[in-house]
Specification:
Length: 443
């Protein structure tokens, strides 16, 4: 029996010893962190903002044996899913040294390159060459360096009941190009995982890089000590959700100044987007934007929906539900006047999405002008405009698309600066905007 094994052999069937991935690849020496001058540490050069992929160099974050000393980035690939990969390795379902077979995984459509890809200030939260691992870095792959894509581009069909309704209303037509005869939408999809260039992220928020590194280290429980010990490594792959881009029409039209672009930037709201909660306008606004994007594509332009994983204003779903409870239970009921106050009482801040990084994906797509921006958010609007992209028209959610219980949210946001073509409510008016109480909700 192995040392430390408490299994009772008399009551358990004998288990044949197996050569597990852990036994093969892990040794007793655990490397908690590394240092710039440490023996064997020779990072592959990485020049963020270089004019070409080869001049920039690959992002290498793997701790595998044949890549460890060549790492030029902190963190782990896969975003929030890196933890599941670790679990798969721990239980023996995945070999730690598994290398993907990238055969036939290349992008279905060509996007870029655009000038912003080589501008170290325009794109700081994603790897602009993250979809071209095999194309540009095959030499490193052949040498055994573990490099993983952080962007994938594919195409698909989208089936929504609301699109069927839009077809019946005559808003959309079955043209065979954007909408199939079966009522499905043809889309190009882009998935992107976060890759942060730390000096650029710090500059975007107007803070010191050292402050950013310390905060990331402390508030992840010290998970990434190289944030402190490796100031020479400027790239960090954070364990957070990424984004998905849905393109309606020809992706080449996005950067074409002669083509109209309709766009929505949407932050995840699982309760509404997927399960139809009516306490907010998220799903109705998302569906409305998809209809508008598809219509723009049918009219010769292009439509884009960018879907960020920032659940509950990046506060998380647990915090969001705690806020819901506080809103419904407060004295006087759920009022627009106290909408943000309840969030601040629970979370300490009303919003942690901090849209300063959001425009990066737009620059990656080659966006220069948005003809119709399907959003009322002043924060998103300002971040996009401040990044150098022109917005021609801002489009509010139609009144008839708003669920009754969402009035609290939307009126509070309008009073706080959201775009509207209607009246901006006063403080007294906000007190009169109330959501329903739990007794009125059918469970």
């Amino acid at each position: 029996m192995a040392q430390g094994d408490t299994t009772d052999a008399s009551t358990s069937p004998p288990i044949e010893p197996v050569d597990t991935p852990q036994q093969r690849l892990y040794n007793s020496r655990v490397v908690l962190t590394t240092y710039p001058s440490q023996l064997g540490i020779e990072p592959i050069p990485l020049h963020w903002g270089a004019p070409t992929a080869s001049a920039r160099g690959p992002v290498v974050v793997s701790r595998s044996q044949d890549t460890f000393g060549k790492r030029n980035a902190i963190g782990a690939g896969g975003g929030s899913y890196c933890i599941y990969r670790a679990l798969a390795v721990a239980i023996g379902a995945l070999a730690p040294n598994h290398r993907p077979d990238f055969t036939m995984t290349e992008p279905t459509h060509q996007i870029g390159p655009f000038p912003a890809w080589s501008d170290p200030e325009k794109i700081v939260s994603m790897d602009p060459w993250g979809h071209a691992t095999v194309e540009h870095y095959s030499e490193f792959l052949d040498q055994g360096v573990d490099i993983r894509p952080t962007i994938a581009i594919t195409k698909a069909h989208m089936k929504l009941a609301e699109i069927d309704d839009a077809i019946q209303r005559g808003f959309l037509r079955r043209d065979g190009e954007i909408v199939t005869e079966g009522g499905e939408l043809k889309v190009v999809k882009v998935a992107s995982e976060p890759v942060w260039y730390l000096p650029g992220v710090a500059q975007r928020f107007g803070i010191e890089e050292s402050t950013l590194r310390r905060a990331l280290f402390e508030d992840t429980g010290g998970m990434y000590p190289e944030l402190i010990t490796r100031p020479d490594l400027k790239v960090f792959l954070p364990p957070i959700g990424g984004l998905t881009v849905y393109i309606f029409g020809d992706p080449a039209h996005i950067s074409d100044p002669t083509k109209r672009l309709t766009m929505r930037v949407h932050d995840e709201c699982n309760g509404s987007d997927v399960f139809g909660s009516d306490i907010c306008t998220c799903k109705p606004y998302l569906v409305y934007s998809i209809e508008e994007c598809a219509r723009e594509a049918q009219n010769g332009g292009v439509g884009v929906v960018v879907y960020f994983r920032k659940e509950g204003r990046a506060l998380g779903e647990v915090t969001k539900y705690l806020v819901y409870n506080a809103r419904k239970r407060q004295e006087g009921g759920d009022t627009a006047a106290n909408y943000f106050k309840r969030t601040e009482f629970v979370a300490g801040v009303k919003d942690m999405r901090f849209q300063a990084l959001m425009p990066d994906i737009l620059h990656w797509l080659g966006v220069k002008r948005i003809d119709r921006f399907i959003s009322m958010s002043n924060m998103k609007y300002q971040a996009i405009v401040d990044s150098g992209i022109e917005i021609i028209e801002r489009v509010s959610i139609p009144e008839d698309r708003m669920p009754a219980d969402s009035k609290v949210e939307i009126e509070a946001k309008i009073a706080d600066g959201y775009f509207t073509t209607g009246e901006v409510p006063t403080g007294e008016m906000l007190k009169e905007v109330k959501g329903r109480n739990w007794d009125e909700i059918a469970h």
